[in-house]
Each structure stands twice: as C-alpha cells, then as structure tokens.
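From the methods appendix. Each design record in this collection lists the tokenized structure first, followed by the designed amino acid sequence. Records were kept in a plain field format so they could be parsed without special tools. The example shown here is representative of the layout used throughout.

RECORD:
FOLD TOKENS (284 positions):
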C-alpha cells in the first residue's frame, strides 16, 4: 500500500500473510476489520525484553511476589504483575518463566512472565500462559492496527489511554461515521473446561467499566470490551463465578449494546502468535 510510511512496530506478519498484494494508491483503503482467520499467526514479541529463564515456583508469599528456583540452582524473588489469585496456575512446583528486570525502585531482580497452565480436557500438556496483564493492551493495539478484530465498525485512528469523566479507557477508535468508540481491554489467564474465565478475583473496577460503557452506549456512542485470553487452548471466554457482580455488569453492558469480543494468543518463549477470535459467553 502506497502513501504515508509508518514507523516500525514490534508485530510482524506470519509468512503466509507476507505476500498479500498491495492495493493501488488510487483505491480507497478499507478500514473495516479483516477476516480474523487470515491473520492467525500474527507475531508479537514479549513486552518485557530479555531471555526467559525456566524455574519452579517455591512459594507465593503474596499476590505480587513469587519465590522461584531456577534451573541454574539459584533461588530468586520475582514480581508477579497479575493481581488474580491464579491458584490453578501458580502453586508450589509449577513450571514458571522469569526474566531479569532492573530498576531503582524495584525490590525484586526478576519478573515472572509466563507459567505452564494445567492441561484442559485430554491434552497431555498444558500451554504456556502469560501473566503480564499490561501486555494485553499491546496485543490488542497490534490487532487493531492490523484490523484483525472481527465485528468492530470501520475505524481509522487509534488513540490509547482516553480519559472520560473519572475513568480512563484503554483505547478510543475514530469511526468512519465520525463517532468515537471507547474500547476497554481485559486480560484473561485462568481457564476451566475449555473456557477462559475473567476476573480471577473480584474486581469492582472491571464492573464499573462495564456500567460506564453501558451508559456511554445509551447516550448514543458506541463502546466495546475486548477480553484477551493469553493462552491458546480455550474455546470461549466467560465471566468467572468468583465475581457475580462483574457477571451482572457485563450482562448489563451487552444488553445495552456494548460490543463484546474475545481473542486468544498462543504464548511462546519469544512472544505471542494470534490464535484467532473466541466467543464471549454471558449467562443472562
């Protein structure tokens, strides 16, 4: 595609997509979502730079701290960014992956990035799951720029971190019809019975975002919530029964017309590959 050059982006297309023909310069570029299946395999490196080191979780003194025995024999403390309980994933002996992380205000010298999830169904080995919720926004930004999220209205510019009232939403999309679509991202790691479950601990903030987006839609402006399964073995995404308040708020948002979209990523030691769309199932 000719025209304005864009700066480098960490995401790259999979080889089977790299040969897509360019559109002539005089043909208007479609800004609507592409078919998600075409872009499966889209690659995004991990947000935190460095080589992941394998180890075993010794203990988790609190939600934000893990003690890890590395394969080298060293025992280190690692920061855990995910605020969820993660009891199905982070238990003594769990296979985890950490990366060195330095900083003047850090207490720990490592960050826990990934863990081996228990297998679902009859799978012999569970997948790697990423426990970096902040990275979910980066993954969605990549999909938005690639127009890979199905079911969104045609849009152009993508603006991150938009403040509306007392809240801040992850993205605002400039729609082709002149309106603005507010979009909130939620990261999902825990799963049961082939369903990814969010949130893993009660989250009033997540419920409040649902209610605020519902009010936004009732006022005549579009909104969407994208739930990101940072593991590829799930078939759908559902509210976690641990937080019935969020389940009610999500159902209210859906009833008001907030778009609910789910995506999944295959997690590897080098980064993520887009594994396609996943339905969001809300029990009324």
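DESIGN:
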């Amino acid at each position: 595609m000719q025209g304005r050059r864009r700066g480098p982006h960490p995401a790259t297309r999979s080889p089977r997509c790299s040969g897509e023909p360019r559109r002539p310069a005089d043909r208007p570029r479609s800004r609507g979502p592409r078919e998600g299946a075409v872009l499966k395999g889209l690659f995004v490196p991990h947000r935190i730079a460095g080589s992941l080191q394998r180890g075993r979780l010794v203990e988790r003194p609190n939600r934000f701290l893990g003690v890890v025995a590395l394969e080298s024999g060293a025992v280190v403390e690692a920061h855990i960014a995910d605020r969820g309980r993660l009891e199905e994933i982070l238990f003594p002996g769990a296979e985890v992956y950490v990366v060195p992380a330095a900083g003047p205000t850090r207490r720990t010298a490592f960050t826990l990035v990934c863990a081996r999830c228990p297998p679902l169904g009859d799978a012999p080995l569970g997948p790697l799951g990423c426990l970096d919720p902040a990275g979910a926004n980066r993954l969605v930004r990549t999909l938005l720029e690639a127009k890979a999220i199905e079911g969104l209205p045609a849009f152009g510019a993508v603006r991150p971190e938009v403040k509306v009232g007392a809240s801040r939403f992850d993205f605002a999309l400039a729609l082709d019809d002149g309106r603005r679509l507010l979009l909130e991202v939620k990261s999902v790691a825990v799963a049961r019975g082939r369903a990814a479950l969010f949130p893993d601990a009660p989250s009033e903030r997540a419920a409040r975002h649902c209610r605020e987006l519902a009010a936004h839609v009732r006022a005549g402006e579009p909104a969407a919530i994208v739930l990101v399964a940072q593991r590829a073995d799930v078939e759908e995404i559902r509210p976690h029964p641990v937080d019935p308040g969020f389940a009610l708020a999500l159902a209210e948002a859906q009833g008001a017309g907030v778009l609910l979209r789910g995506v999944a990523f295959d997690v590897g030691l080098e980064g993520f590959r887009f594994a396609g769309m996943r339905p969001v199932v809300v029990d009324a």
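APPENDIX NOTE: The chain has three helices and 16 strands.
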